[in-house]
Design goal:
Length: 203
């Protein structure tokens, strides 16, 4: 389990056991994840999404509380998976981190409650499965624009080659979401009042 440079984001690389029949690996270990995060991840829902090459989903996050932690795995194909810190008061607010998830080289990405998530399919028919700590509730779903210039996410495909939903295309910038009060708060500052941060590019 490798902590990323955004608090609450971890990358798990399993040990793969090959033999004459194929391979075996443990794609998720609750005990190990709990040891790193300090809390167990209840699984309320498991989603599977199949995307055509160039499909971009996100940046999505949920209201906190209760939030929605995610554990993301690519089962088939290859995706560029992105974590964005959209938590007000976080020392890494506005920072993003991208990792390559590949069905042939399995890894799992964990995102704590309040972190934003996006993925870009790099192959046709890329299949991604992810476990969620809370069930889907459209009333709590939020998004910021994946092409926000202040975020500066370095996507491996040009925007013109990406396919987005109407909702994601119309999503506000991080600064607009901040001004509208749509962003979750970092655990260290929840319940406090104070000066809101400005958006800064820290990639």
């Amino acid at each position: 389990m490798e902590p990323l440079d955004i608090d609450g984001a971890y990358l798990y690389t399993p040990r793969i056991f090959p033999d004459h029949r194929g391979t075996f690996h443990e794609s998720y270990r609750s005990v190990e994840l709990t040891a790193f995060t300090g809390q167990p991840m209840p699984v309320a829902q498991v989603n599977c999404v199949v995307s055509g090459k160039g499909t971009l989903r996100g940046v999505h996050f949920c209201d906190v509380p209760p939030g929605q932690a995610k554990y993301v795995m690519c089962m088939t194909g290859r995706v560029f998976d992105v974590v964005v810190d959209v938590r007000v008061g976080s020392p890494t607010f506005g920072r993003w981190r991208g990792v390559l998830l590949d069905g042939d080289q399995p890894r799992g990405l964990y995102l704590a409650e309040g972190l934003g998530h996006a993925l870009l399919a790099l192959t046709e028919g890329a299949k991604v499965s992810y476990m969620c700590s809370q069930a889907y509730d459209p009333a709590r779903e939020r998004a910021v624009n994946a092409f926000d210039v202040e975020l500066g996410i370095e996507w491996p495909l040009e925007p013109a080659r990406c396919v987005l939903s109407d909702k994601d295309t119309a999503a506000p910038s991080l600064a607009e979401a901040l001004e509208a009060g749509l962003l979750p708060r970092h655990p260290a500052v929840r319940g406090r009042r104070g000066t809101e941060p400005s958006v800064r590019r820290t990639a």
